[in-house]
Each structure stands twice: as structure tokens, then as C-alpha cells.
Design goal:
The chain is of the alpha/beta class and 281 residues long. It contains 10 helices and 9 strands. Bound molecules: pantoate.
């Protein structure tokens, strides 16, 4: 595995590979790999001739007072894990090379970026789409792979590539969970022992609401209320950011919930802001 930090070198290497007919896949990450990341790499490894994984904690997607400064990192472990997964290139740019002095260009998907997580993190998705656009320009991938835990991020990136005619296919892969149902996330590292024990209730609430939908309840406000009160009763330690049931393609609320809708939640549990979602089929 090659580790490349220079933007010009990664661009040259990937462009040459693409021109010589090799298929390229990119897995963008902020590091601190867990099985969720590794499952994306495994999927991409099967598909492509050249697998690039980027590792960059992107300051532009963190708001003031958020966890940019303390985002968990373990480069040695990540390098080892990426090698085990057969990654060809680990791209580890410095902050100053992606955002040099005077940087002032942003990519923003309007509308979708202001919903759900965008309500309390108003500049988050602008930071995500800007860095992902830059990563696409630097690595020229045929496919880029993202986890469905970040459902909103996934559909925003899909929309960006459609709107801007980017020649890359966006692939979404299922959320990977711990044995007790907690969605894997680098931010789970912030949970202390007590909070870690109760954190699976985030997903249990989503399963509950899916069960209610399957047994015939399709009133959105009623379902949202039931889920909110589930968390108030079973996870009183959590501060609820949002509990919403929306159309999974455009994130618009529907009065009558239809199959294929998305129940999405964000809760603050101690130092960790946890997000999760489930499709209602
Ligand atoms: O999902 C993430 O880890 C990040 O938002 C991403 C896509 C790597 C952009 O920084």
C-alpha cells in the first residue's frame, strides 16, 4: 500500500491509472476505522482494480464548539487495517494542502443541506460536499462508496454529482452495527461505560417505530410522537436533536407515511452526537 499526502501526486497517479483503463474506487473517510469503514473498503475492493481510501478530518464540516479538535484518531491502526483490506493508496492530505490560505470556493446542495442535521449544523453539509468534490477531482474515481448511516450525506452527495454532471457513481452501503444494534461510528468512542450500555436504545426505538408502521400506523405525527416519547422514557440521558419521518429521497415529511420512508434521529448522549435511521417498508 502506498501512502500519499501530496495533492498533485495523488491526482497524477489516479489520472494515469484511469487513463490506462483501470477501474478506480474511492472510500472517503475521516479515519479511526471500524467495521463500518472496513465493509465499504471490502465492497469497493471487489469492484475495482485500484482502491483509494482518503483519510482526512475535514475542518470545514465541523461547526464552532463541535468536536473537530478532539475527533478520535489512530493513524497507525488505520494504516494497518487499510493494508489488511488490500487498499492500494491511502490518501492523507494535510489541512493546508486541501485548504490553502485564501481558499474561498464552496460547493453547496441547497434545500437538502438545510434539513435534518442541517437544522442544527447549518454549515456541515457545505463542508462535506466541498471536500468530497475536491476528493473526486483529486482521485477521479469511477465509484465512490458511502455508508447509509449518514443517509442525508449520501443523498446530498448523489444530488451533487447529478447536478454538477460528475462522472462518478455513488454507492450507498448498509449500516454496520455492533452485536447489540448500536450503529458503528467513530464517535461511539466518546461514550463512557454507562452511556455505551444504553446507547443501543437509539436503534431499538427505530425498530419500535418500524413495528408500529408495519402494524398499520401511518400517521407521521403520531409515529414521531411515539418515537420521541420512547426516547424520553427509555433514554432520559439523551438530548433529542430531531426525530423525523421523511421521504427517503427528498427528506420531505409526508402526512401519511408510505413504504420506503425513512425514520431518522439524532441524539446527544454525553459527549457523543449519535445519528441513526431505518427504512420503513
Ligand atoms: O462520512 C464521513 O466520514 C465524512 O463526512 C466524509 C464523507 C469523509 C467527508 O469528510
Amino acid at each position: 500500500m502506498e501512502i500519499i499526502s501530496s495533492c498533485s501526486q495523488i491526482q497524477q497517479t489516479c489520472m494515469q491509472a484511469r487513463q490506462s483503463g483501470r477501474t478506480l474506487a474511492l472510500v472517503p473517510t475521516m479515519g479511526y476505522f471500524h467495521d463500518g469503514h472496513l465493509s465499504l473498503m471490502r465492497w469497493a475492493r471487489e469492484y475495482c482494480d485500484m482502491l483509494v481510501v482518503s483519510l482526512f478530518v475535514n475542518p470545514a464540516q465541523f461547526g464552532p464548539g463541535e468536536d473537530y479538535q478532539r475527533y478520535p484518531q489512530d493513524l497507525d491502526n488505520d494504516v494497518h487495517a487499510a493494508m489488511e483490506e488490500g487498499v492500494d493508496i491511502l490518501f492523507t492530505p494535510a489541512r493546508s494542502s486541501l485548504y490553502p490560505d485564501g481558499f474561498s470556493t464552496w460547493v453547496e446542495v441547497q434545500g437538502l443541506s438545510g434539513k435534518l442535521c442541517g437544522l442544527t449544523r447549518p454549515e456541515h453539509f457545505r463542508g462535506v460536499t466541498t471536500v468530497v468534490c475536491k476528493l473526486f477531482n483529486l482521485t477521479c474515481p469511477h465509484k465512490a462508496v458511502f455508508g447509509q448511516k449518514d443517509w442525508q450525506q449520501l443523498i446530498i452527495i448523489k444530488k451533487m454529482t447529478r447536478d454538477l454532471n460528475m462522472p462518478v457513481e455513488i454507492v450507498g452501503r448498509p449500516t454496520v452495527r455492533e452485536d447489540d444494534g448500536l450503529a458503528m461510528s467513530s464517535r461511539n468512542a466518546y461514550l463512557d461505560q454507562e452511556l455505551r450500555k444504553v446507547a443501543p436504545r437509539v436503534y431499538q426505538g427505530l425498530l419500535m417505530v418500524r413495528g408500529r408502521f408495519e402494524s398499520g400506523q401511518d400517521d407521521r405525527l403520531e409515529l414521531e410522537l411515539e418515537l420521541r416519547s420512547y426516547y424520553q422514557r427509555n433514554l432520559p440521558q439523551a438530548e433529542i436533536d430531531y426525530v423525523q419521518i421523511v421521504d427517503s429521497n427528498n427528506l420531505e415529511p409526508q402526512d401519511r407515511v408510505k413504504p420506503g420512508a425513512l425514520a431518522a434521529v439524532a441524539l446527544k448522549l454525553g459527549q457523543a452526537r449519535l445519528i441513526d435511521n431505518i427504512l420503513l417498508d
